[in-house]
Design goal:
Elements lengths: L1 E7 L6 H18 L3 E8 L4 E7 L2 H8 L2 H11 L8 E6 L2
Antiparallel strand pairs: 1-3, 1-4, 2-3
């Protein structure tokens, strides 16, 4: 299992809108992205975290370069962000 973790600095006033972006693209992510296995939204006091599950590092990296991510998800989230996202990939060994 591989996890793609994206931490987003979102002001409290924009968190509902950010959660809406998550909901809008959850099904397309799970249904169309190669190797996608799960997607969870974690809302914390300091940020919003999206945790994506994949079958391989290759597929996690490919998603970060896909139109779904770069044009759709990032395009809608960009005006809601207070800072650049922190993106990390973890592999369970």
């Amino acid at each position: 299992m591989v996890y793609l973790q994206i931490n987003l600095k979102v002001n409290p006033a924009n968190r509902e809108a950010a959660a809406g972006v998550y909901q809008k693209y959850k099904a397309p992510f799970l249904n169309t992205v190669a190797g996608a296995q799960s997607k969870e939204l974690l809302v914390r006091d300091v940020d919003v975290q999206v945790l994506h599950g994949f079958d391989s590092v290759h597929n996690a990296k490919a998603y970060l370069e896909s139109d779904l991510f770069t044009a759709d998800v990032v395009g809608e989230l960009k005006p809601l962000l207070a800072d650049a996202p922190d993106v990390r990939i973890y592999e369970v060994v």
